[in-house]
Write a structure and sequence with these properties.
Helices cover about 45% and strands about 15% of the residues. With about 350 residues, the protein is an alpha/beta fold. The protein folds into two domains: about 220 residues, D-Maltodextrin-Binding Protein, domain 2, CATH 3.40.190.10; about 110 residues, D-Maltodextrin-Binding Protein, domain 2 (3-Layer(aba) Sandwich). Helix 3 packs across helix 14. About 5% of the residues have low confidence.
């Protein structure tokens, strides 16, 4: 009932946005439409942040506000609850929601490699004699028995440590402790105080903690340490299929702005980093942000386009931990390039 109520509210919101676009007088139609994007504060969201700060969304008639959430898994809840119009999700989340009758849709391939780096507290890494040069299977085995911080159960911060433990032949529910900590600041605080032994997150927080000497990054997915998760659809921008169907012009405008920001930031990296540091990552040292940027940029898709192989590869990874998407992976079910054309 609760899920149905949320879905009804969002369906009504999608229809209202479509009606507003259709009926607005010409003088009002030129005013940017206030809409929201919900996301965890990580560096791969740079096209959204920079699109806001550089005015690319406004150029497309959208007054976009970014709403920070504590876990990527909460993005769909923000949409269904009417707090946001777009978010970032992965294929597993969208497939699972569609299994539940909620027609989420991936519309822009944002990150084409898993970018969660695993950082251990320095003393733990030294005790286990683990570095980023240790054979990868030994790094997986080293996770056994550790207290691993996560944002929320079922989030990528939870799923990928489980995947690594499974790869090493361990049962994550019995042979490690997944501790729900919360958002980005909470993960950093928990590692600093020793409440957790390690966690996985995209840049820049792991890089900042390593620079401080608090931790050591031992699995560098930003560098492609784990080959099977180095070439797939990891994070994509998403909304619901009815929202795109009711608002096709708005969807295309939103994606044009994302692409403008994506293109701009590659040619103006110094300015992009100044904006990101000042507006979104003031708690990250400039040299660490630059290091994180250099590690992350190759993982961000330059044009947002999907291919089915990238979706299928993501599905195969999750089959390893018993999470199967019961849906067609062909275009038009959980993903589409339609609004990029």
């Amino acid at each position: 009932m609760r899920r149905s109520s949320r879905w009804s509210r969002f369906a009504a919101l999608a229809a209202a946005v479509a009606l507003m676009l259709t009926l607005a007088p010409s003088s009002q139609a030129q005013r940017p439409i206030p809409l929201k994007h919900a996301s965890l504060r990580v560096l791969y969201m740079a096209p959204i942040y920079l699109g806001i700060e550089k005015g690319f969304f406004r150029e497309e008639g959208i007054d976009l506000q970014n709403v920070e959430i504590e876990s990527g898994i909460l993005g769909s809840a923000a949409i269904l609850g009417g707090q946001a119009h777009w978010t970032d999700l992965d294929p597993l989340q969208v497939g699972t929601l569609r299994d539940q009758g909620i027609p989420m849709l991936l519309i822009y391939n944002l990150v084409r490699r898993v970018t969660l780096d695993f950082i251990l507290r320095t003393e733990v890494a030294e005790r286990l004699r683990i570095t980023s040069q240790t054979p990868i299977m030994d790094r997986f085995r080293a996770l056994r028995g550790l207290n691993i911080g996560i944002t929320r159960p079922g989030a990528p911060t939870d799923v990928f440590p489980r995947y690594f433990l499974r790869r090493a032949g361990f049962d994550p529910d019995r042979e490690a402790n997944m501790i729900q900590v919360g958002g980005v600041p909470a993960l950093g605080a928990a590692l600093r105080t020793g409440r957790i032994d390690g966690f996985m997150l995209s840049p820049p927080l792991p890089q900042q903690l390593e620079k401080e000497g608090v931790g050591r990054i031992v699995i560098k997915n930003t560098a492609g340490d784990v080959p099977e998760i180095a070439n797939l659809v990891y994070v994509a921008l998403a909304t619901t299929e009815p929202f795109t169907r009711n608002n096709p012009a708005l969807t295309r405008a939103y994606l044009r702005a994302v692409n403008k920001a994506n293109t701009w930031m590659r040619s103006n990296q110094a300015e992009a980093l100044r904006i990101l540091q000042a507006k979104y990552f003031s708690d990250t040292q400039p040299d660490v942000l630059k290091l994180s940027w250099d590690a992350l940029l190759p993982a961000i898709s330059p044009d947002g386009r999907f291919n089915e192989d990238g979706i299928r590869q993501y599905v195969r990874v999750f089959e390893t931990i018993g999470r199967t998407i019961r849906t067609d992976t062909a275009e038009g079910t959980i993903w589409t390039n339609q609004y990029l054309r």
